[in-house]
Design goal:
Order of helices and strands: HHEEEHEEEEHHHHEEEEHEHE
Structural class: alpha+beta
Helix content: 25-40%
Largest sheet: 4 strands, antiparallel
Length: 302
């Protein structure tokens, strides 16, 4: 097993960067090489969605229905090992298929699977998609209600927390305060919390700091730039004469006059300084320099 190829193998880095942009979920890529006529892992499930990309050799896959549908990341298959083994042994598989080079199979989280190489060395990539679940919203809300002082009050000293009767009155009070706190949590705060988790799930395209600094110093009309691959962002009007560019780790405040140019620069196209809409050539250069220094844009290779 070769882990984390999405961080070490250039072509897979590029592939994963584009995939995460399209899917909106973090992703990882591992490679599995199986000797001839050998089985990899026994029947199990993953806690993330999976795409299997067969690279070389042939592999016989058996897929069974879940015993624990839609597992969360903290609910690994080992917690249901007995049920997994029983289903794989006693039930007919939903999929019983040999994958050839170039074949792709999608496995939603929770679906049981096992695979055996046939006659020769087999290699496949597993693309794990860490989908955002409704429970992520629960976790975000739970984190945000900590701002409510009523929910931070200490329980009495000496309380026996193992005694349900002793906890009962406090549980009732906490439920009431929790319901009140939940209704006060703003959707924009929930979104900010969730995206903070998702946007940092994959690294954006790596930068070359020295080359970038040199490019910024010599920037002139005719130079070309593009948005940094894999960078997650959101643009919103702040309502105070500024537009805000929200990034995974910070927010940039820019004059509203840059809005048209900023939208263009972030659309994924290659732009030439001097041809960016909405600003004079000098102002285009100022905006591009700022976004280059912030790691939002990159110089295009000649």
């Amino acid at each position: 097993m070769l882990q984390a190829l999405h961080r070490t193998w250039p072509s897979i880095i590029d592939f994963t960067t584009r995939l995460t942009e399209e899917l909106g979920h973090p992703a990882q890529v591992n490679a599995y090489i199986t000797p001839p006529s050998s089985q990899g892992f026994s029947a199990h499930y993953d806690v993330h969605d999976v795409f299997v990309l067969q690279l070389t050799g042939r592999k016989h896959w058996k897929v069974h229905a879940p015993v624990h549908p839609a597992p969360l990341r903290g609910q690994p298959w080992g917690e249901h090992a007995g049920a997994v083994a029983t289903r794989a042994r006693d039930d007919a598989p939903i999929i019983d298929k040999v994958l050839e080079p170039g074949d792709v199979m999608y496995l939603p989280r929770g679906w049981l699977h096992s695979a055996t190489a046939l006659g020769e060395i087999s290699a496949h990539l597993t693309v794990g998609i860490h989908v955002v679940t409704r429970f992520a919203l629960v976790e975000a809300i739970a984190a945000l209600v900590a701002s409510d002082e009523r929910l931070r009050v200490s329980l009495p000293l000496g309380i026996d927390v193992a005694d349900p009767a002793a906890l009962g009155p406090h549980i009732g009070a906490v439920r009431e305060d929790l319901i009140a706190a939940l209704t006060a949590v703003a959707p924009e705060d929930i979104a900010r919390h969730v995206r903070g988790q998702v946007w940092t799930g994959n690294r954006p395209e790596p930068l070359a700091p020295i080359a970038a600094a040199t490019f910024v110093s010599n920037l002139a009309a005719g130079d070309t730039v593009r948005r940094r691959g894999g960078l997650r962002f959101r643009v919103r009007d702040n309502g105070d004469g500024n537009v805000v560019l929200e990034l995974p780790d910070r927010r940039l405040s820019l004059p509203s006059s840059t809005s048209i140019a900023l939208t263009a620069l972030l659309d994924g196209s290659t732009w030439t300084v001097g041809e960016i809409p909405g600003l004079s050539v000098d102002d285009q250069a100022v905006l591009v320099r700022r976004l280059l220094r912030e790691g939002v844009l990159m110089a295009t290779t000649p």
